[in-house]
Structures are given as C-alpha cells and as structure tokens.
Backbone:
C-alpha cells in the first residue's frame, strides 16, 4: 500500500480545530504551550545528529500545570542512537512520580512493535494522561501503532495536523518534519535524503580558471560542513574532485559519526595516491561502470577500498543502491558536472550554498552547477523554505528543491487494512529480510536495544547494552596487551552499538595483531551464545522469531559478506543462519515441553480410572 503524499506548504494557513476527545479544547494559551513543547521535543531530537549514524530522531518533553496555573517541565530526553535508551523512558526517569496525570510531548510517534515497546510502555506505566504527537511514524509498519496503543489504554492523544490544526501549531509541525526529513523522504520516495553543498564566490565561481579552490569559504564555514558530514550516512564526490582537491571528506567531530566516503567515476581515471584510499579511520567506496579498469579495481581492493560496479553509472542508481544499504541521508560535495547530473536526475532534495564575499572572475572558471539544458529564466529551479544565515564572513543560503513529504492525511495502515480484510498480509514472502532496527523485523539486528546478561573477560556476570557490544568486545577478551585491554573497556562503555562496532572494527583493521588468534574459529559460537541469551531473555522476541517459521531469514547488509546476505545474495548470511538455528532449537524445546505436558495429562487420566 502506498502513502498519499501531500507536500507541506509551510506558508499555508491552518484552520483551528481541536478533536472533541482532546483535553486541550481550543484555549489559545493551552495551544501555545502545546506548540512550545512540541518544538522543544523537536529541538531535543536534533541533539543526536552527528553523534552516531542518522536514525529516526526522537525527543520527549513531559510537562504539567502547577497549582498556580503555570506550566512546568518535569523531564526531557532524546534518543542518542538506535539501540540506546528511548527518549520517552529518559523523560519518565527524570520526572519520576510527578508523571502521573502529566502530558508527554513527542516530536514523532514512537516505535511500537513486537520487538520494541519500551517507549509506549514507559509512558503508560508512568501514568501519563495525555500525549501530544508532532507527526505519525512515517514507516508504514509502525504508522499509527503507538497512537492506537495509547488510546487503547484510555490516554488522550492529540496529533498535530489531525486533532490539532491551527496557526499556532504550524511552526511546531514544521520543526517535527524537518528534524526527521531524511526518514520522511526514505518512507515517501524510497531514496535517501540528498543534500547538495557547495561554496562559491560572489560571482558564482567554485574555483579559479586554473582549478585552484583552497579556500573559497572561511574556516567557520568549513567547520559547519564538518557538522553536515556528521549528520550524513555518506558523502559523495566525483573523480574530478579527487584528482584536483585530494579531499579527506572526514567529519573531524571528535569521535562522532563518520560517514562513508563515496567516489563516482565511470572511467576510474583516478590517482593511485589519494587521501580517500586511506581507510584506517573511515571507509571508502568507489562506484564505477561494470568492467572499468580491472587492474585499478584490484589496486583499490588491496587498499581496503570497496568497489561497486553498475551497468550504467548515474546518480539515480547510486542513490537507489544506498537506499538498499539503509542510508537515510547523503551529502553531495561534488563539482558542477556531477551536481548538474544529480539535480537533473531528481535526487537532490536540499541545497546548502556558502557564498563568500570574494570575486575571482575568469570566463573559464567553473561554477557550482553545470549544464542543465535551460534556456530561459522561467525554467530556473526555485528553492522553497529558504533560510539565510551569516557564518563568519560568508552567507549560507539553504532551501529545498523538493518539499519535505507530509504523509497527512492519514491513509489506513497495513494493520487497519488487515482488520478489514484478513486475507491481506504484509509479510507473505518466504524470505524475511532484516537490517536496520526500524525494519519490520529490526529487533533481529545486533543493534537493537535488548541488553543481555553475559560473563565478561573475568567470568563475572555483566550487563552488555547490546549483542553488538558483547560481540565486538570478545575480539579482545583474554589478551594481555594494554592497547587491547583499553579497546575492550572502551567497547564495554560505548554509548551506542554503532560506536562499539566502530571501535572493534577499527582496531581489528588497524592492528590485526591485537585480535585474539582464535577469533575466526570462535566468532560464530560467541555470536550464537549472545543471540540465544537475547532471545531467551525477552519472550516477545521469542514469539517474533517463532512467528517466522517456514521463512528464510536473511540479514540484508549488502556489504557484509560473512554475517549478511550481500548485495546480490552472494553473502554467507551467517547471522540469518544462526537465527534459523536458534529458531529450530526453540521449536524443539516447545515440542518437548508439549509432549511432556501431554504425557503428564495421560498419567493423570490413568490415575483417575477406577
């Protein structure tokens, strides 16, 4: 079932309306407070950007009215990363007993599925009376589930744009859409959110006629670019940028998220010496046309650079591929030729243009966007929702080429359709894929928020935040080397599964001698022990796993050829295999228990006979 998309017009006027079941009525002061706290929830949600891989951004504010009639904030929280404590649970813990009868403000409807019910449960158990939600969850398998769960518990629920529609709420709704724009684009358009960034002089040049471009913008502007990179899953450049500028494309954010660097080159006419071929800290992928310079492909592979071939290389196929890899946001820092191709392909959604107070001239000096085939000014592409900001001496102009998708009005969800027609099932395929934690079977991921109790290196029982923490740490268990021990402790205390994975993989890549010598022979057993503990600890996960009986489970990572299925199914899919093995074990235990119960019942019946 596809969503009906209605691009949001931020300048449109709202008709003030309050749902009859809402506790807010239409009081201007109450609506003003609602709008203020929803915006605050969106601000909190934005705090995680740049700290870890882009993911759904959640913020929560719990507030109440004091005896004197003043509104008081009781607790706040935001989701740091996938696999960490939900924003709602953080806010509840901060507010404590004062939650009872209070209102919770959420920028987006929380996840609520068989494998992830912590956010909804936290608010319900805390005694929250009312929930105000900025937008429904954009992903179809989650959309509306939390809203129905709240209302099923007798809680009052107001959703902006549905139950609350008025001018006061316009800015709040806009904030909620912008903070999760990457997820909205992914859900609505099935592509990553793509941002084109460039710096140019006042006369529209990105380099001198000689090609020299260091530096057009100020140091302050370049620092802002590091922030843009930290908010992205990938940074894309073309071959010309590699040849002329030899960039690093790192975020330089003090240990935060490091996006993958991607080079698009049809001919692979690239230098053998380049900063991007150093993958000790940040991975690099080269996208090229099938059959291009096999010898250079082997050279890149020897450097640890991933090479992906396409039948025809263009921005559209690359973004489709990145969508399949789970990317939410992509930053394009390319030259004018590739920028024009990306715009023409319709993959660019937003533009960040730094304009420096400099004039360089030059008839042949390159411009930020190459030929688009337009001959009249009336054909010019116009940015919408334009924002101007002075950054040091430069002016940053930002705007959208395509509006942020607004998934209102609400279309019946898969669950609602299934209730109407039980013959409709969303998961009829014999193969079940899982990868990101927001996927329908995302709880199968090692990055899901399911702590496990397992022994540490000393044999003492230790609470690991995720399976990924446990797995990565065990690369270094039992080693006496102080560097390995330090890495082990850093992994144990990593704030998110992604950070744990980055620490373990980086050390393994940079200093393979620090990894335990038997790692290749024991890693599958270590993973299986962790998975068994996870699925045995949480009954809802056991139920989810058993619900997949008859289906092949495939970890859909297109680049992990050991644990994942690979891009074209060439991967070994050991994670999927272990889960199927565990499923068989659970089924056997269930059958054994059933037989034991039946035997016991028969004995009781025999004893009752005269």
Residues:
């Amino acid at each position: 079932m596809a969503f009906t998309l209605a691009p949001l017009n931020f300048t449109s006027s709202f008709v003030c309306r309050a749902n009859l079941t809402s506790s807010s009525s239409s009081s201007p002061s109450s609506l003003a407070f609602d709008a203020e706290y929803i915006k605050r929830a969106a601000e909190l949600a934005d705090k995680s950007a740049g700290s870890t891989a882009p993911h759904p951004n959640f913020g929560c504010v719990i507030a109440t009215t004091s005896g004197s009639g003043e509104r008081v904030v009781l607790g706040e929280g935001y989701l740091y990363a996938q696999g960490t404590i939900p924003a709602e649970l953080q806010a509840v813990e901060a507010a404590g007993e004062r939650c009872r009868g209070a209102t919770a403000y959420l920028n987006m409807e929380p996840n609520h599925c068989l494998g992830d019910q912590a956010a909804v449960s936290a608010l319900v158990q805390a005694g929250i009376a009312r929930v105000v939600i900025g937008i429904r969850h954009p992903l179809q398998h989650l959309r509306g589930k939390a809203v129905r769960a709240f209302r099923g518990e007798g809680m009052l629920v107001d959703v902006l744009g549905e139950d609350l529609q008025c001018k006061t709420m316009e800015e709040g709704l806009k904030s909620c859409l912008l903070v999760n724009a990457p997820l909205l684009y992914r859900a609505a358009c099935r592509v990553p959110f793509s941002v084109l960034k460039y710096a140019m002089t006042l006369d529209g040049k990105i380099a001198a006629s000689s090609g020299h471009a260091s530096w057009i913008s100020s140091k302050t502007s370049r620092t802002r670019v590091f922030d843009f990179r930290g908010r992205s899953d990938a940074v894309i450049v073309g071959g010309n940028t590699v040849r002329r500028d030899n960039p690093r494309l790192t975020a330089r954010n003090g240990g935060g998220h490091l996006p993958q660097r991607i080079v698009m080159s049809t001919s692979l006419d690239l230098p053998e010496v380049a900063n991007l071929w150093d993958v000790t800290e940040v991975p690099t992928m080269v996208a090229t046309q099938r059959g291009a310079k096999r010898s250079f492909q082997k050279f890149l592979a020897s450097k640890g650079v991933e090479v992906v071939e396409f039948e025809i290389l263009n921005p559209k196929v690359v973004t489709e591929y990145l969508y399949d890899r789970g990317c939410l946001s992509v930053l394009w820092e390319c030259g004018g030729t590739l920028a024009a191709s990306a715009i023409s392909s319709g993959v660019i959604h937003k533009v960040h243009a730094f304009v420096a107070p400099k004039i360089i001239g030059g008839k042949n000096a390159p411009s930020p966007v190459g030929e688009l085939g337009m001959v009249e000014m009336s054909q010019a592409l116009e940015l919408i929702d334009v924002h101007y900001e002075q950054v040091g001496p430069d002016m940053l102009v930002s705007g959208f080429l395509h509006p942020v998708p607004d998934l209102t009005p609400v279309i019946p969800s898969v669950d609602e359709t299934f209730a109407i027609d039980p013959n409709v099932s969303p998961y009829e395929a014999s193969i079940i894929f899982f990868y990101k934690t927001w996927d329908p079977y995302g709880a199968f991921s090692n990055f899901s928020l399911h702590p496990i109790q397992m022994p540490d290196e000393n044999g003492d029982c230790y609470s690991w935040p995720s399976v990924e923490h446990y797995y990565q740490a065990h690369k270094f268990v039992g080693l006496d080397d102080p560097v390995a021990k330090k890495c082990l402790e850093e992994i144990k205390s990593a704030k998110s599964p992604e950070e744990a994975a980055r620490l373990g993989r980086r050390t393994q890549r940079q200093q393979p001698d620090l990894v335990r010598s038997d790692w290749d022979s024991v890693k599958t057993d270590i993973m299986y022990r962790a998975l068994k503990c996870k699925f045995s600890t949480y009954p809802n996960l056991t139920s989810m796993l058993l619900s997949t009986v008859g289906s092949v489970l495939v970890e859909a990572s297109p680049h992990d050829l050991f644990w994942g299925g690979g891009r074209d199914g060439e991967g070994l899919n050991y994670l999927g295999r272990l889960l199927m093995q565990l499923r068989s074990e659970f089924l056997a235990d269930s059958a054994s228990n059933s037989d034991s119960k039946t035997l016991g019942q028969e004995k009781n019946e025999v004893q009752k006979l005269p």
Notes: The radius of gyration is 26 Å. The CA atoms of residues 196 and 332 lie 5 Å apart. The longest helix spans residues 574-608.
